[in-house]
Automatic annotation (TrEMBL):
It holds the Pfam family SYY_C-terminal. The lineage of its organism: Bacteria, Bacillati, Bacillota, Bacilli, Bacillales. It comes from the Bacteria. This is Tyrosine--tRNA ligase. The keyword Ligase applies.
Length: 73
């Protein structure tokens, strides 16, 4: 998830992404992400297509997965 957060522009760096995950600032579909090695997969998605990432209280990002289960943005 760390690389995805940086690639999507949610986090400015991998270090900051790891720090925010460890501090409980990142949620995926309403559940806190507590492991920096968490993968984003179809299992984590709504309807097999959408994932909502939240940073803090006000910053939300909607990720749309394509048929190959990779990010479309």
């Amino acid at each position: 998830i760390v690389e995805w957060l940086v690639d999507l522009g949610i986090e400015p760096s991998r270090r900051q992404a790891r720090e925010d995950i460890n501090n409980g600032a990142i949620s995926m579909n309403g559940e806190k992400v507590t492991d920096v090695n968490t993968d984003i997969t179809v299992k984590n998605s709504f309807d097999g297509r959408f994932i909502i990432i939240r940073k803090g209280k006000k910053n939300y990002s909607l990720i749309k997965l394509n048929k190959q289960n990779s990010i479309m943005e």
